[in-house]
């Protein structure tokens, strides 16, 4: 089965947004062994959309549409397909019910154009939208399968994963395909590929696909076998070989993030944490708080953006700043120690540095100091020299602090989650 | 002139990377008034690439390729085009020279396959690559213009902007095209379109293109005229009409973000700010700190994730929490007032709520209270009832706080930035 993904929306052709939906759906299809041969993007224009559909029907079995299911007049994907396939649109009761409820919850009047969102292709399998109003559809006719999905990523991603993908998997079920992602931090993609070269070259089942993004590197292991158990067996063998070589940089699997791994570890070991943040200005704590249940571990902390705040609120001695400056090992160390004491947590983290674009005195942009205090020991400090933009540097500093803390906890014998 | 962008690379079809090049080139073409009607993505396969070229020639005047110019066997864009157009490839001396220099600078031996990168279509205009090895090309034949560009964003972006775009601009110079984006918050896309329906329907020059993302709505106004001044005149008229109807929700233009507008406004009016955050856990301060120079206004603040921290660190009376709970107007109001006092800022902001997925006692997930204290007046509070995921809710709460504060400052007569 060969697939084509058609994204509909003039905003894509104007360069206002990136076609991230095609990437997401492609990676999902790769997991279940469906080849994607083409992506197409076409604007909110019924004639050009019709042309794109005709071309796709000539070269692809499965045609997946994203976008154009919304309430406005520009949204014309299902109307165009209905006309092309000579089928009617009809109101889906469940979809209509959830649209009405959506407006009731928001305490807003429902405008008439929203009714249009509940229309579906007659005879299609309706895909529920748990994160928005427009339902999706799957329709099969004369050797082609058409899947219609909404445009917003937060709607299309869960809908594809939980509604469409299981249907497609059962369509193509020729053996079982299992994927497992290993996540690494603190090592570049080229360096990791270099270390694993002999594995990357010789593997066909499972396949190993490395990918770098946001300062992290992942390796996706995909195995194919008659049963899920056998596929997992293949994955475990490959995983063991990889971790034997690059285990030092390994932090988690699949949908883990560095902050979720740290959160689980804090909770498992009943540790509490507080942070004092300068350049990251709350990002460390905000990222930790992405993880539900983190309230057991994260007590809170301070944003000490201003020098006086470090002295008056956190209680730092003026001399530390005068002697070493705020971008220094000593300052990071004191921030970690003081915030731990003040908040009564088991762990204190301090983050200070020059995010950029300006240098901070004689400290160039991208200089970061991380302090970590655990229990009564003298705090540990780490220096980073980053070369990204202001906000990349702030995010890297945050992730590095998570990573350093995880490594430190492992060294001290705390259990991994 | 109508354009199509063909990105070549199997990694795009596997979902390993996003087609950000198409977005970049599209936004650049929009600026010079070239309509993009299609994006296509095709893998490293010469037959399918050839099919894609033939389809593009039937519907587009300008065909821009990204990717497939590198040294490996998979890189076949220029070979396929040369064969299709019956033209030879020849070595470009300048390109060869810079490839040799590249390896010398890196102190590495040049492998033979790198010679392939210096080959260009005979008769093409060669586009220099200042950030990599493979040169780009522009070639015109029988009513079509073909532009070949490398795949890596750091190579294609400067090459397009500084080499290809000036050539295209001189090709299309028929009047001036100017775009201007208006940004709105606190109103849905459907509701805004409803309000502006008569304008959206009747406008052809300028055109109005609404777009929703991340809880915001933008309207791009694009005008075409003989001179830039006349184009701007058309834009100003449309802008005035739009703001007359929907001005209450307007917060900024072009590349503004809500936090950048607020930051500029704080700096212009010499106001200082501190925040106490529960559900957002530092996100409000971290988002403000995205903006360079914010240190003049943002003193810092506290993350009071834990109830005891609100009492012990921020100094809240235990009775406030016992009587009203932490998800309450009273608690948000006290957080705003106390953090303002503690940090000695002119403005204090308090954020508390149930981010989800769990409710907080009898307060359903998505209930948020924002408190804003300015000067000595009693704090203002605002309630939100959000329906997104945990992290969408936290981001919406943060943006709403920015928006409410901007509105409040305008009401109080502070100057917009």
TrEMBL record, chains A, B:
A Pfam family recorded for this sequence: CinA
Transmembrane regions: none
SUPFAM superfamilies: CinA-like, Molybdenum cofactor biosynthesis proteins
Coiled-coil ranges from the UniProt annotation: none
Domain of life: Bacteria
CDD domains hit by this protein: cinA
The MoaB/Mog domain, residue ranges: 4-170
PANTHER family: NICOTINAMIDE-NUCLEOTIDE AMIDOHYDROLASE PNCC, NMN AMIDOHYDROLASE-LIKE PROTEIN YFAY
Protein family (similarity comment): Belongs to the CinA family.
Name of the featured protein: Putative competence-damage inducible protein
Organism of this sequence: Rummeliibacillus stabekisii
């Amino acid at each position: 089965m060969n697939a084509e993904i058609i994204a509909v929306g003039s905003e894509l052709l104007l360069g206002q947004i990136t076609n991230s939906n095609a990437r997401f759906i492609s990676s999902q299809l790769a997991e279940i062994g469906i080849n994607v041969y083409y992506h197409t993007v076409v604007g909110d224009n019924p004639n050009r959309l019709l042309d794109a559909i005709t071309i796709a029907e000539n070269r692809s079995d499965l045609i997946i549409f994203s976008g154009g299911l919304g309430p406005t007049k520009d949204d014309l994907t299902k109307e165009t397909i209905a006309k092309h396939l000579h089928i009617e649109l009809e109101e889906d009761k469940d979809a209509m019910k959830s649209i009405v409820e959506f407006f009731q919850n928001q305490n807003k009047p429902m405008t008439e154009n929203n009714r249009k969102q509940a229309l579906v292709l007659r005879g299609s399998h309706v895909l529920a939208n748990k994160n928005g109003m427009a339902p999706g559809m799957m329709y099969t006719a004369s050797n082609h399968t058409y899947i219609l999905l909404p445009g917003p990523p937060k709607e299309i991603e869960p809908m594809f994963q939980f509604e469409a993908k299981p249907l497609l998997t059962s369509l193509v079920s020729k053996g079982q395909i299992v994927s497992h992602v290993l996540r690494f931090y603190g090592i570049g993609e080229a360096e990791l590929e270099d270390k694993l070269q002999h594995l990357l070259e010789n593997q066909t089942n499972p396949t190993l696909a490395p990918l770098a993004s946001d300062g992290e590197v992942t390796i996706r292991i995909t195995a194919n076998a008659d049963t899920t158990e056998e596929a997992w067996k293949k994955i475990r063998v490959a995983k063991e070989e990889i971790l034997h070589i690059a285990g030092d940089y390994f932090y988690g699997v699949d949908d883990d993030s560095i902050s979720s791994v740290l959160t689980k570890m804090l909770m498992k070991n009943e540790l509490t944490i507080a942070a004092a943040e300068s350049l990251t200005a709350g990002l460390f704590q905000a990222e930790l708080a992405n993880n539900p249940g983190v309230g057991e571990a994260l007590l809170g902390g301070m944003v000490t953006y201003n020098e006086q705040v470090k002295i008056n609120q956190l209680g730092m001695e003026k001399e530390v700043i005068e002697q070493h400056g705020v971008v220094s090992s000593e300052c990071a160390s004191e921030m970690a120690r003081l915030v731990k004491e003040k908040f009564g947590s088991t762990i204190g983290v301090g983050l200070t540095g020059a995010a950029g674009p300006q240098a901070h005195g004689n400290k160039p942009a991208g200089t970061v100091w991380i302090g970590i205090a655990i229990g009564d020991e003298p705090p540990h400090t780490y220096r980073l020299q980053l070369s990204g933009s202001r906000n990349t540097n702030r995010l890297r500093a945050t992730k590095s602090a998570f990573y350093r803390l995880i490594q430190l906890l492992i060294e001290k014998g705390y259990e991994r989650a």
